[in-house]
């Protein structure tokens, strides 16, 4: 992952945790596949493995193999930055963004017990902030068992985690404040999130 020193994420793991809706990328022969799907660390206390799943009728699912090298991209918020917003250090337009990548090796999880564990983990992570978290036990009778043959779950053993947090760190704090004001005036949530992250940068 191209990550210039000024923009290299100090904690790429936190990006993966915060923005888990990833793109799983694999290559087989002359074909390259990519599927957007949520991917999570397998437990709360380790970053060595991740788990996820996709529908079995997805052509990519048919190509997944044990030991296959994979790339998972975790895109966070992003926003265009107009050059007209700079007052101190004049330059050209740019794009601010947050993103992480994980490279690793795949392990297929096809057995019912293993797939149920993956589904439990996904539900546990996504429901943890709800006042009344939903669990697999609340699914309609037989629904989970009916689902299992229709999905293909996987585990990724992590080789490398990298991240970029590009938030105009190379510009003076005075210019960043002007950028924040412009971003907050926009209607989209990504611009607001980039503004919030930029506001928490150390002053330079």
Automatic annotation (TrEMBL):
Pfam families: FMN_bind_2
Domain of life, per lineage: Bacteria
PANTHER family, alphabetized: PROTEASE SYNTHASE AND SPORULATION PROTEIN PAI 2
The protein's name: FMN-binding negative transcriptional regulator
